[in-house]
Amino acid sequence: MVGRQRRAISVRALLLLLVAVGSAYVIGLTAYLTALQLSTSRSELRYDPEPTLRLFDQLTHRAAGLAALTTEARRLPTLPRDQQPEAARRLRAAVVETFAQPAPDLYAGVPYASRIRLLEADARMSRLETVLVEVAALTEVGRATAADPYLAAADSLTGEVTAGLMAAHQLNVADLIRRERALKRVAREGYQALLAWLVVGIIGLPLAILVVRRRLGKPLASLEEGLTRVAEGDLSVHLPVRHLDEVGRLTEHFNDMTRVLRERAEEQGRFIAAGQLIAGVAHEVNNPLMAITAMAQIRLGKPDLDPEVRDDLQQIARQARRAGKLVSGLLRFVQARDRHSRLLDVAPVVRQAVDLVSYQFAVSEITFEAELTEPLPPVLADAARLEQVFVNLLSNAVDAVRQVPPPRRLGVRSHVGKGRLLIECWDNGPGIPPELRRRLFRPFFTTKGRRGTGLGLYISRQIVREFGGDLFTADREGGGATFVVALPAAAAGEATAAPADPPDDRDVAATPLSGVTVLVVDDEDAVRRPIAAFLERRGAVVRTAVNGRDAMDQLAREPVDVVLADIRMPVMTGVEMLGALRTSNPGAAERLLFLSGDLTSLAASGLPVPRDRILLKPIDLVEIERRILELFELDRGRAAMAVGAPLTPAPS
Amino acid sequence: MCALLLGAACRDDPRPVFLGYAFRVGPDPLMRVAQDALDSAATAGGRPIRLFRLKVSDAGTDDPEIEQAETLAGMPEIIGVIGHPDSRGSLAAAAIYDKVGVPQVIPTATARLLKQAGPWSLWLAPDDSVEAAFMARFVSEAIGARRVTLFFGNNAYGRDFRYWMTGELAARGVALVDEMPFDRQSDLALLVEASLARDHPAALIVVGQAYETGTIARLVHERLGRAIPVVAADGALEPPAALAAAAPAALDSIFVASFWTPDDPDPVSRAFVERFRRIAGRDPLPGDALGYDATMVLAAAVNAVGPDRRAVRDWLAGLGVVRPAHQGVTGPLRFDVERPGPVMMLQVRGGRVVRVAGW
After folding, report:
1. For a Cys-Cys bond, which of A464, A546, A548, B201 suits A469, CB 3.0-4.6 Å?
2. Residue among A112, A117, A115 nearest A46 (CA)
3. CA-nearest residue of chain B to A141?
């Protein structure tokens, strides 16, 4: 990947950490400002000043009242004697009246120093009250003149009360000043602390944002950009992995998938190129094969052949046909075709897939065992895509058995039951470890390292599921692996069967083409000549042309019943000839059969050529004869129905 | 200023429960009696409980009750407090106990303001208004006096009593011919002379301690040449000897309001009197009985719910409500309703307190 990867705390842990730090910050700030600051304030203020002030007010009022009563008491001796008793009684009553309401005890909560002063003042006032009562009593009993010591005591007590209250007042004032200073200090410290918290917050928040951006924002943005580029088709994306955390691992997975997609795309490109190459090569191979087949069949048609030569010729024809089938299979497999599901017999599909991979059996000392209990019930599927599935399974099986020493065995086996057709593809390779079975069908899972894309089994299962079936693994006795393709069996019907090889022994003396004029158009003499010779031997009147232009010229001079033309030719191709005939000689265009070793060129031309007019090289000469007869008979029928038709069959 | 004094010797039990004893400051046989009862209960299977008392030095102490309350409330080992001795002290301490959450059982304080002291203060004695009403009734109905003079101490106890007494007398049609406050430094002879110069009452009501009550009774007796009934509040029996010494000739005319007497035939009361006599060598006073009840009901709460202040307070508040009243020396103890008032008048005869009247 990238060299500069750093081990880092996971994103989840980082987010949790950030949340925890944020919460701690908020809680800490709140706790500090409330609990700590408030407790500091409480410790500084120490107590509630209200009881002290209330008690001080009460005692001050009481002292003021007593001062007035003391003045009254001092006036008693100065009053006329007859007025003194009554004035004394009023004074005593006034003193007693101050007790009219029970007063709650207010000393609780008063600080020690103030309490001492106020208690002293309270005691002095109580004593003063009693002294005033005694002054009044003396006056009442006619001894007002003896009241001087009491009045002196009253004055002294009044002074002490005043001094005590003043002292308490000074304490209160000092305490209030101290409280004010303490409050100011607490408030200042609170502001400073709040400022410190805010500074921490102001620094911490951008830091947190920076961390989140670096660890989460940027990597996610990079990932999103990468995904966008992939969605736009750019598979060259490779994202840097800076931290080995969740996002880093996500980026690694992204890079892995992009690599696989890129390799897959490159592989597909190579596959397409190979397909095109095979298509081109197929033409060049099929023409010689066609020539070989035709030559051999021509020679085989001679009755006086030496038996040994006949056997050799038959072997030549058989091997040529086999080579032709292999080339056809390769073409079929690599060519892109429309998806077309139809009722089909799976057995030939399996056989075709086996044909494609069978070249590896001998080299790798693999014994192939087929147990297809035919006839198999038809299934609704696309033959080419189903063949792709079996090729994939068989290729995997070949790779698997190569890992074990001989004897190496693989095979296919069919079962039918419960409305399903099961095709098992088994091998005696190392088998599938249980821990891998669950992941086997996931995309991009491979046990082949960089050789594998990890998509084969995934795509195969998707294909089978499209047909209503499934692909799964099964246990196999004795080890190895078994993959099962399960397909729903369709109702019994006519399934398309693969064409069988034509028999080599035929009535060589017959002339079924008697009266039919055939124009054979092929640029290769080795092909053209044996075909022409065969058709002539079978009774046809044969003309030949070396390219499309030559054929057009001949057709312009003299009509024929059937035109048998190669597609890829110099000067004018078969397809170009078809286009020209459709304009100049539509009747002849309708009687045109194509011979081709490469269907891709026909498909690329864009011309709507019916598939039944195309004969794929190498083709058996008897099949050519059959198709000519078929077309000839069709045209003759049309001519019979259409009076004055231009086509005139040649007399036999 | 205050030194912690262990009220009773600790036994070997490593985890005793401590109760603060703030009922009396000086030498007090009641504390020894109560501790003896607690030890007996512990021996019988109860929880070991120790009484703590703070020794308050005289020098520099501005308010011993507040000092004691603040110290006791600050000691987490103290589960409850018995005290304080008077209304003023109990009220001052109540504010502190209420703030900290210490159950306080008040034995003898009678100020009606105790009702506002808070949920942590529970008092045993009826309040001043109840005692004043009883005394006014005694004056009116038993003595038949229609004119009375009131002498009261110029302190929280006396002033509060005076407040309620004036109302009760007026309600019964008894004329209050004079009111005379006094203190410990007062010239009681002058005050008595002045009061009698104003009017001669049919009876005296005195709210003060034993010495002051006896002195006033003696002075009135001497000045009038005859004894007039002196109806005194419960403080006059603290102690009875002082009352007898101050007014030996007028002792028969002094009636002291009370709600318990040592000759109470109730078994619990008898056991207490016997224990008290054995340890203190004298008869217990009503104040002793209330102090003893306060101690024992607090101990019962600790034994019931363990050393937990709130649980103890809740257990005490539930007496007579969610659990039966505690059977004390002075009768069934409960704190949900006001206690019945004094039901008897006592006199000191031959050095002993005896019951002379009651309802």
Report:
1. A464
2. A112
3. B194
pLDDT of residue B8 exceeding 70: no
Find the closest chain A residue to B66 by CA distance.
A108
Which of A108, A133, A138 lies at the smallest CB-CB distance from B96? A108
List Cβ neighbours of B342 (8 Å cut-off, separation of 6 or more): B126, B130, B131, B134, B234, B257, B258, B259
pTM metric for this prediction? 0.53
**What is the DSSP pairing of strand B49-56 with strand B17-22?**
parallel
Residue type, A507: D
Pairing of strands A408-417, A420-427: antiparallel
Res. A512: pLDDT tops 50: yes
> DSSP characters for A20-59?
HHHHHHHHHHHHIIIIIHHHHHHHHH-S-SHHHHHHHHHH
Beta strands in A195-315 (DSSP E): none
Instruction: Inspect the interface and report whether the beta carbons of B63 and A119 lie closer than 8 Å.
Output: yes
CB of A73 within 8 A of CB of A90? no
| Smallest Cα distance from B167 to chain A, Å | 11
Is residue B96 within 8 angstroms of chain A, CB to CB? yes
Burial (Cβ within 10 Å: 0-12, 13-18, ≥19) of residue B44: exposed
- Select from B62, B111, B149 the least CA-distant residue to B235: B111
Of B129-133, B179-183, B221-225, least confident by mean pLDDT is B129-133
Nearest to B99 by CA among B74, B77, B81: B74
Question: Which of B92, B186, B195 has the CB atom closest to A108's CB atom?
Answer: B92
CA A102 to chain centre: 86
Pick the residue of B1, B155, B176, B183 with the most A CBs within 10 A to test the interface with A by mutation: B183
Residue of A634 and A13 predicted with greater confidence? A13
Strand B78-83, strand B104-106: pairing: parallel
Q: Say yes or no for a CB contact (<8 Å) between B113 and A95.
A: no
> According to the model, what pLDDT value does residue A645 have?
36
Cβ of A96 within 8 Å of Cβ of B88? The answer is no
The reported pLDDT for the residue numbered A315 is 83
- Measured CA to CA, the distance from residue A646 to residue A591 in angstroms comes to 12
Which residue of A96, A114, A116, A128 to mutate against B (max B Cβ within 10 Å)? A96
Which of A379, A382, A368, A460 minimizes the C-alpha distance to A422? Answer: A379
Chain B CB contacts of A115 under 8 Å are: 62-63, 66
Residue A333: partners with Cβ closer than 8 Å, 6 or more residues away = A356, A384, A387, A388, A391
Of B257, B250, B212, the C-alpha closest to B231 is B257
Confidence grade of residue A643 (pLDDT, cut at 50, 70, 90) = very low
- What is the maximum alpha-carbon separation in chain B? 66
Of B124, B27, B37, nearest to B84 (Cα)?
B124
Is the Cβ–Cβ distance between B327 and B342 less than 8 Å?
Answer: no
What count of other Cβ atoms lies within 10 Å of the Cβ of residue B128? 27
Q: Over 70: is that where the pLDDT of A161 sits?
A: yes
Closest residue to A102, CB basis, from B62, B95, B159: B159
Question: Which residue type, as a one-letter code, is found at position A241?
Answer: V
> Angle, to 10 degrees, between the axis of helix A84-97 and the axis of helix A50-75?
170
Q: Cα A12 to chain center, whole Å?
A: 20
pLDDT tens by residue, A366-415: 999 988 887 888 999 888 888 889 988 998 899 889 889 988 999 999 99
pLDDT in tens, A628-637: 888 887 766 6
pLDDT in tens, A338-365: 567 888 899 989 988 888 888 788 888 8
Contact state of A109 with B198 under an 8 Å Cβ cutoff: no
Task: Give contacts of B195 with chain A, Cβ < 8 Å.
Answer: 137
Q: What distance in Å separates residue B250's CA from the closest CA in chain A?
A: 24
